[in-house]
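Researcher: Next sequence.
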Amino acid sequence: MDFDEVATTTRSVRRRLDLTRPVARGVVEECLRLALHAPNGANRQDWRFLVIDAPELRAGIAEHYRAAFAAYRATLSDEVARSGMTTSAQYLADRFQDVPVLVLGCARGRLTDSASAAKRSSFYGSVYPALWSFMMAARSRGLGTTLTTVHLAREREVAELLGIPFDEVTQVALIPLAHMANDGFHAGPRRALGEVMSWNNWQP
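Model: Next structure:
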C-alpha cells in the first residue's frame, strides 16, 4: 500500500470496528515489530507494550474505561457532549469489552511532579512515535485503531488488574484494535497547510 495513502487514511476508528471478528496474534506482533523501529530518546527503547485479548481482562478494563469516560463527559458543555465526536466515543465506551484486542503502550519509569517540560516531552515522546507506527501498520493490514488516554484517570486500578508495577511503569496510551466493519478508509477533514504552518517567524 502506498505510504501516502496509509498516512492520510490512518484515522481514529470507533463505530466501524468489527467487534465480532478476532484478530490473529501474529498480525498484532507483525505490527509491533514494525513499531519497534520508531525513533526514541537516546535509543533507550524504554517502551513496553502489553497486548490484552483475554475476555475477563478486557471486561475489567472496560469497567474502568467507562467510569473514567463518564467522569470526563460530565465536564463537557452540552454542545460538546452532543457532538458527533463525543457520541462516537460513547459508542466505543459502551462496547469496550467487545473490542478483540487492546494494546497498552507503556514507558519504564515514572515522572515526578517537578519534572521539566523537556523531560516530560522526551519521556512521552519516546513512546508516541511507536504507537503511531503501530497504528499505521495496522491500517496497512486493513485493521482499525484509535488512540485513547481516557482510562488513565484510573491508571492505578488498571495497573492492579494487569499486574503492572505502578511505581515503575507509566501507562501512556491505549489502542483498541479490530478488523474494519467495512473498507471505508478515507482521509479526514484537516485544515489547509497554510493555516498551521509558517516559515521563519511565528504566525498565530
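Model: The mean pLDDT is 94. The first strand starts at residue 47 and ends at 52.
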